[in-house]
Design a protein that fits this description.
The protein has 110 residues and is mostly helical. It has one domain. The chain is 48% helix and 0% strand. The chain contains six helices and no strands. The longest helix is centred in the middle third of the chain and has 14 residues, at 37-50. It starts with 5 loop residues before the first helix and ends with a helix.
Amino acid sequence: MRKSFLLFVVKENKGREPEGVSKMSKKNLLNLETVPMEALRAIYEVDKGFIGTKSYMGIACFWNNEYRSFLGDASMATRKNMHLKFLAGRLDVSAASPMHLKILKYFCPQ
């Protein structure tokens, strides 16, 4: 099984790993710097569909335009963690509010 499809297989298996996946291969599931542009666009579109869910991967843009200067350079992990924090607080991930800004400044101090 190719590593690039592991993310999608794990999702389809409700979080269970496919057989034969070692801890070493899970360490770096997908290096986006090596993915062809066509594949990256497809991954981006899939992630857009995950916005507002716990399955969001940190690739697609979900934030309010007001916060673009904070999040443009944020890592995928930072985006994902912030997205999860918005969900935990029952906040609309694409909205702007004082609570959004507080969470954003925690993850992306400037």
